[in-house]
Amino acid sequence: MSDKWIIFFLVCIIILLLAVVCWQQFVFNRGIQHKLKKISEKLSDILEKDTEEKVMVFTDNEVLMDLSGQINRLLLDRQKIKRDYRKQQAATKKMLANISHDIKTPLTVILGYLEIMGMEEKENETLKKVEVKAKQVMELINQFFTLAKLEAGDVNIEITKININELCRENVLGFYELLLKKEFTVDIRIPEQKLFVQGHRESIDRILNNLLSNAIRYGSDGKYIGLFLREEEHFIAIDIVDNGRGIEKDFAESVFERLYTMEDSRNRKIQGNGLGLTIARNLAKQMGGDILLESEPNVATVFTVRLKKISYGICGERNL
Question: Residue 178: inside a domain, yes or no?
C-alpha cells in the first residue's frame, strides 16, 4: 500500500473521530440544556404556586447536582423566612387584639365617670369635649380590636342566603333624614327582581354603612349620592357613588390600607381614622367577595361591593 493511501486512511479516521467527538459534545450539551430547562420550569412552578416542593434532577453531572442542591438550599431558606414571618404576623395580630381588649376596660370606666360628671355639670363645655374625644378613642380601639380579630381569623362569619335588595333599601333609609338635611340628590336603582347573595348580614350591613357614611362625608361638595344594585355573571355588585372631590389614581388602592387617611387625596386634610375601609374590605373578602374603587376627581367616585351570587335555574335548583 502506498504512502498516499495510508495518509488518506489516517485523515479519514481523524475526521471520523472528530465527527464522533462533535456529535457526543452536541448530545451532551443538548442534554444539559434540557435538564437546565427542566430545572427552570420546576423552579418557576414552585414560585408561582408557592409550594414547598424541591427541585429534583436525575443526573450524574456533578455541576448540575451541585446547582440543584444550591437552589434547594435557597428554597428552604425562603420557606423558613415565610414561616417565621407568618408566626410573627400572627403573634403581632394576637398582641394587638389583647392590647385593644386591655385598653377598653379602663377607658370604659373613664367614659362612665365622664358621663356622671356631665350630668352634674351640664354646662361644662370642656368636659363635653373631653367626653367626645374619649368616645372617639373608644371607637378607634373597637375598630382595632375588630380588625385584629378578623386578621387573626378569630371571627366566625356564618354565611347564609341574604336578600340584598332589602338590605340595600334598609341602609339607604337609615341615612335618609341626614341626606335630606344636607340637601343631597339621592339616586337609588334597585331592581324589582329579588337578588340573593352568599354573605353575613351584619358584615354586609357594616360594609354598606361605612361606604354610605364616607360618601356623605367626603362627597358633600357634589351633593349627590347613588346606590346601584346590579347583577354580574357570578357576583352581585353594589355601586356607592358620590360626586365629591374624588380620589386620585395614585391613592386609589391606598385607601384600603390600615390607618390611611384622606389627607393625601380627597380633602388634603386628615379625615377619619383609616380603619373603616380596611375592615370593610376584609369582611368582603372573608365572604368571598371584594370592594373595588374607581374615581375621577370632581366627577365621580365609585366604591363597588362584589358579593357571591345565589342564582336559581329554570326548575328552581340552586346554582352557586
Answer: yes
CA distance 306 to 287: 10
Q: For residue 309, give its domain range.
A: 160-319
How confident is the model over 126-133, as a mean pLDDT?
A: 82
CATH at 245:
3.30.565.10
Residues with Cβ within 8 Å of 148's Cβ and at least 6 positions away in sequence, in order, are 93, 94, 96, 97, 100
Whose CA is closest to 239, among 296, 298, 200, 190? 190
Report if residue 254 sits inside a domain: yes
Q: Is 186 helix (H, G, I), strand (E, B) or coil?
A: strand
0.85 exceeded by pTM: no
Q: Average pLDDT in the 274-292 region?
A: 89
d(CA 180, CA 192): 24
Lowest-confidence segment of 95-109, 202-216, 222-236, 278-292 by average pLDDT: 95-109
